[in-house]
């Protein structure tokens, strides 16, 4: 007979399907975070829209009514690492899609230096080489909480537990290069942000000989 539950989409498609600016932005995010397709991106965007919608609804309530629900929403986002510091409901409205994508298991595996690239991280997760507390996790899109992040590592039965494994050595080398390049990138960004005053050279008009001017005037007549 099957499951009596009514299945529904877990994401909302874009309202403007043919938007060149959105195309470019989505392609960049898909490449940066190693997503399989845009449906994965739309799922996280729908989740982000849900957080924002809850924040707007709470802002419309009186302070005494929204206090408990506001705390629950902010605590949830703090546990997931999407929010940091001492956030407010305005911080929820300022969230971007990148804030959510950074908390994916695939992204965290790459950021921790367990994989050579973001695509390699996805392969390790789907092939069962990554574990949480020793238990394999095979869902790249899983949102990892702040408490779970330190407990992410290689699966006990994975050959990558061998420190001399070629893939592990390559991942460590990539992590070292990334760490070494980070200060250079920050210095370049700071240099770009510095406003350089523009000095406009004063151009003096050319000197015209009076005799040449008279000759030119006579020729025109």
Describe the overall structure:
It is built from nine helices and three strands; from the N terminus they run αααααααβββαα. It is mainly alpha-helical. Strand 1 and strand 2 form a beta hairpin. Helix 2 runs antiparallel to helix 3 and helix 6 packs across helix 7. The relative contact order is 0.08.
Summary tags:
single chain; 221 residues; mainly alpha; Structural Genomics Hypothetical 15.5 Kd Protein In mrcA-pckA Intergenic Region, Chain A; 3-stranded antiparallel beta sheet
Secondary structure elements and their pairing?
Blueprint: H1 20-32, H2 38-59, H3 63-79, H4 89-93, H5 97-101, H6 105-111, H7 118-126, E1 130-132, E2 135-136, E3 152-154, H8 166-193, H9 210-220
Antiparallel strand pairs: 1-2, 1-3
Helix pairs in contact: 2-3, 6-7
Brief synopsis:
The protein is mostly helical and 221 residues long. It has helices at 20-32, 38-59, 63-79, 89-93, 97-101, 105-111, 118-126, 166-193, 210-220; strands at 130-132, 135-136, 152-154.
Strand order of the largest sheet: 2-1-3
Number of domains: 2
Low-confidence stretches: none
Q: What is the CA-CA span between the terminal residues?
A: 105 Å
């Amino acid at each position: 007979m099957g499951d009596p539950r009514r299945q529904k989409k877990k994401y909302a498609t874009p309202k403007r399907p043919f938007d060149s600016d959105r195309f470019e932005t989505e392609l960049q995010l898909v490449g940066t975070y190693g997503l399989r397709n845009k449906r994965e991106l739309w799922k996280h965007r729908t989740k982000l829209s849900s957080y924002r919608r809850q924040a707007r609804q709470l802002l419309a309530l009186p302070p005494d009514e929204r206090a408990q629900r506001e705390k629950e929403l902010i605590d949830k986002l703090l546990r997931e690492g999407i929010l940091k510091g001492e956030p407010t409901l305005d911080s929820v409205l300022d969230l971007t899609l990148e804030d959510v994508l950074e908390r994916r298991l695939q992204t965290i595996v790459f950021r921790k230096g367990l994989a050579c690239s973001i695509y390699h991280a996805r392969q390790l997760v789907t092939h069962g080489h990554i574990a949480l507390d020793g238990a394999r996790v095979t869902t790249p899109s899983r949102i990892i909480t702040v408490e779970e992040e330190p407990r992410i590592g290689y699966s006990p039965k994975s050959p990558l537990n061998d420190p001399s494994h070629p893939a592990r050595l390559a991942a460590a080398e990539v992590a070292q290069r990334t760490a070494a390049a980070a200060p250079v990138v920050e210095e370049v960004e700071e240099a770009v942000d510095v406003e350089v005053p523009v000095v406009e050279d004063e151009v003096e008009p050319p000197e015209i000989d009076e005799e040449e001017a008279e000759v030119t005037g006579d020729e025109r007549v």
